[in-house]
């Protein structure tokens, strides 16, 4: 069984399909890397690509995607709802099979060093690959965004990059790291009042006393107030618990949940946990699903 | 792609594991038949086996299971919560892949004729294999159960079997048919009052003006009142809609839903529909699930 990692790079372009295609194609030129999913949002002005494959293939492909993005995206002209600091903004490596988080952190450092050295971009290491506690959390690393970093990277020792130069061009900086699987999940409210989304986000996120393993922002997207989230431990705080809580908080604000949106992919366990909770059907698993069970047994013999 | 059918025979024994094993083993002696699932309930005194495979293998295997059950189960001594008319009580064939419902109905008739002729058991054909409109519905065919049939099979023309003799022994009669996939689903209430389950069943079942494609009975199982159901078209009336409605009706009765129970298997679509509704995530599909997407792509190349 080969080792498999996932990499979910976030790029600060969600409008120009040609640019997005060029970035994806740069990675896909490497044999053995697979594109599992892509999501672009024009309000966020951001694209999330989900790659998987052997560590060697993924690291090489993602390096090329970062290189292409840094040539094609100019942050001095880029605007969007979503916080960002780089053309290739965040590059997390995730262990999927036959590899540990620690090994992914080592790979992240190899990738970060190469981006810093060869592309001459400032690189910050985060989460399991962080070099100091205050850089573990993505939001802390990215605080102030590109525009703030331009002002401070050379003068503020706290902003000195882990790899690459302490100077910044139109491609900005790259935040590279390793982490466990997360679920990127947005909930649209049936209101245009972004302040309501902001208040709900503040109540729901761990950093201000909300639910554990939830990061949340209130944004204005697709003409609606949106609670935009990363769920960093879906086993401890399941998606459906978060959605239930937002429904409650929305009702308190006199609004409702219009719909949700998944960015990238969701682990199978999260699907089963949601259905199991809703149907009050404890222990629901793939062994209860006809298609799964059929796929597990041999259907070819007709002796 | 070979044709695949499913057969979900229901046997009137849910307590004696040795008997159940002998019935299952009789079918599994046929190459090419697979046992996907088994559920036994001692209150129902009933076992549901889910077989799948090529039509030829499934028909042969199920014939042998019916033969074994008719030798081992004596309905003159059998008692249980669940209505029943035979040792092998109900034998539905379900099209899964590369075969139509009409073709399954033809197979059902071949199986029914063989059971009638060789095992000398009265056989009633139901659902898509019914020979007259009043025999389409299982509950109508089984009305009065074994004890009533003993009194009426020889004297009442309406009870004349489709195959086999118009006389009945301790193995009772067999109801054979063809139908689309259904979901057998039970909801336990947090009360011992079986009359509440009966009232909820009456409000929820189609035949008394409830939800379309829902059959329901109130039973007393595992020390709890239970709403026992067959959902005969889960696309038109999804499982989660039924559970939601029972939660409402239970609340009106001043009780709650304790948990649900799936008998046999559930189609994948029902799982996704439930999670999608609960998470308010429209269009949720296998393409959103990491494990599914990974399994669809080639992970071996590392050139």
Secondary structure blueprint with pairings:
2 copies of one chain form a homodimer.
Chain A: E1 4-7, E2 10-11, H1 17-28, E3 33-41, E4 46-53, H2 55-72, E5 88-97, H3 101-119, E6 123-127, H4 138-142, H5 145-152, E7 174-178, E8 183-189, H6 194-204, E9 214-221, E10 224-231, H7 239-252, E11 257-263, H8 268-279, H9 290-296
Parallel strand pairs in A: 5-7, 6-7
Antiparallel strand pairs in A: 1-4, 1-5, 2-4, 2-5, 3-4, 8-10, 8-11, 9-10
Helix pairs in contact in A: 1-2, 2-3, 6-7
Quickly describe the structure.
The structure is a homodimer of 303-residue chains. With 303 residues, chain A is of the alpha+beta class.
Structure report:
Two copies of one chain form a homodimer. Chain A has 303 residues and is an alpha+beta fold. The first copy, chain A, folds into two domains: 4-178, 2-Layer Sandwich (Formiminotransferase-cyclodeaminase, Chain B, domain 1); 183-286, 2-Layer Sandwich (Alpha-Beta Plaits), CATH 3.30.70.670. Chain A contains nine helices and eleven strands. Chain A has helices at 17-28, 55-72, 101-119, 138-142, 145-152, 194-204, 239-252, 268-279, 290-296; strands at 4-7, 10-11, 33-41, 46-53, 88-97, 123-127, 174-178, 183-189, 214-221, 224-231, 257-263. In chain A, strands 1, 2, 3, 4, 5, 6 and 7 form a seven-stranded mixed sheet that branches. In chain A, β9 (214-221) and β10 form a beta hairpin. The longest helix of chain A is centred in the middle third of the chain and has 19 residues, at 101-119. The radius of gyration of chain A is 20 Å and the shape is globular. At the A-B interface, β3, α7, β11, α8 and α9 of A face β3, α7, β11, α8 and α9 of B. Chains A, B: Residues 3-180 form the Formiminotransferase N-terminal subdomain domain. Chains A, B: Residues 181-293 form the Formiminotransferase C-terminal subdomain domain. Chains A, B: Its main location: cytoplasm. Chains A, B: Pfam families: FTCD (PF02971), FTCD_N (PF07837).
């Amino acid at each position: 069984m080969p080792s498999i990692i996932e990499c979910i790079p976030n790029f600060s372009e969600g409008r120009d399909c040609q640019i997005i295609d060029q970035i994806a194609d740069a990675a896909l030129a490497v044999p053995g890397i697979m594109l599992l999913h892509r999501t672009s949002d024009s309000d966020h002005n951001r694209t999330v690509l989900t790659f998987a494959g052997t560590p060697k293939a993924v690291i090489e492909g993602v390096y090329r995607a970062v290189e292409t993005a840094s040539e094609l995206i100019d942050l001095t002209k880029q605007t969007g709802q979503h916080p960002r600091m780089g053309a290739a903004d965040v590059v997390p490596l995730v262990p999927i099979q036959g590899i540990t988080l620690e090994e992914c952190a080592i790979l992240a450092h190899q990738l970060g060093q190469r981006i810093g050295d060869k592309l001459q971009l400032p690189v910050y290491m985060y989460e399991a690959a962080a070099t100091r506690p205050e850089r573990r959390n993505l939001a802390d690393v990215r605080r102030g965004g590109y525009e703030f970093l331009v002002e401070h990277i050379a003068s503020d020792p706290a902003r000195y990059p882990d790899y690459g130069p302490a100077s910044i061009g139109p491609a900005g900086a790259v935040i590279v790291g390793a982490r466990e699987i997360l679920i990127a999940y947005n909930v649209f409210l049936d209101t245009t009042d972004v302040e309501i989304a902001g208040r709900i986000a503040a109540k729901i996120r761990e950093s201000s006393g909300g639910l554990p393993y939830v990061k949340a922002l209130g944004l204005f997207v697709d003409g609606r107030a949106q609670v935009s989230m990363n769920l960093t431990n879906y086993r401890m705080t399941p998606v459906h618990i978060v959605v239930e809580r937002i429904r409650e908080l929305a009702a308190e604000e006199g609004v409702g949940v219009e719909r949700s949106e998944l960015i990238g992919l969701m682990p199978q366990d999260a699907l089963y946990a949601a259905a199991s909770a809703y149907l009050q059907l404890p222990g629901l698993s793939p062994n209860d699903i006809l298609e799964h069970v059929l796929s597990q047994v041999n259907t070819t013999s007709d002796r």
